[in-house]
Specification:
It contains one helix and 14 strands. With 205 residues, the chain is of the alpha+beta class.
């Protein structure tokens, strides 16, 4: 994998640059319209339709600034996303089931590699499963940790949606379906009885 600091100064349209990973087993890549790298400041700036794919999270924004740690073990230290930010992070199921997706939206998002936290600012909102957590103040800050757990600092509200119970609806539908067929056969037996009474006078003649 090519290290960020070894890349040339500017990438033109269609840039796809790898980001240094904290571990050898993980890798991240950033796609954008343009990118600028400053090796002296150990930083890079991505602009235009930015998309980041990382084992720890997926992110999209208008602009992304990454800071690289200095020294022998170079790696991503911090990343700041700005403008139409969208962050997706999975929360593992402790019972071994499918993970829960945590989708965060905000004006800015800051990822800190040392603890794995993603901080959302600028009227953030986070959707986890059927629940939506919405900031009611522009000063509210939401934090999604590396396990997908959400912590909110400031005024907010939570919208909880409950899906209808399919079992109860199915039982009602079955009940209605049973009464209709039972009524039809009864009507048919009555109809068959009428022709038999008409036939009896002809037999006497």
């Amino acid at each position: 994998m090519i290290k960020l600091l070894s890349l040339s100064a500017v990438f033109l349209a269609g840039t796809a640059a790898p980001l240094p990973a904290q571990k050898a087993s993980s890798s991240a890549s950033a796609h954008s319209d343009e990118a600028f790298f400053d090796s002296n400041k150990s930083m890079g700036i991505f602009t235009g339709h930015v998309k980041v794919t990382d084992p720890r999270f997926n992110l999209q924004s208008d602009k992304l600034t990454v800071f690289i740690s200095k020294g022998e073990n170079q790696g991503l230290e911090k990343a700041i996303a700005e403008g139409n930010v969208g962050v997706v992070r999975d929360r593992p199921d402790p019972n071994g089931g499918p993970p829960t997706h945590a989708v965060g939206r905000s004006d800015t998002a800051t990822y800190t590699a040392s603890n794995g936290d993603v901080e959302l600012k600028g009227t953030p909102r986070v959707m986890q499963g059927e629940n939506t957590h919405i900031a009611t103040s522009p000063d509210t800050v939401m934090l999604i940790n590396q396990d997908g757990q959400l912590t909110t600092h400031g005024p907010s509200r939570t919208e909880i949606r409950q899906q209808p119970k399919d079992d109860q609806e199915g039982g009602k539908a079955d009940g209605k379906g049973e009464t209709k067929p039972d009524g039809k056969p009864k009507g048919e037996h009555k109809g068959k009885g009428k022709p038999e009474h008409k036939a009896s006078p002809t037999a006497k003649e």
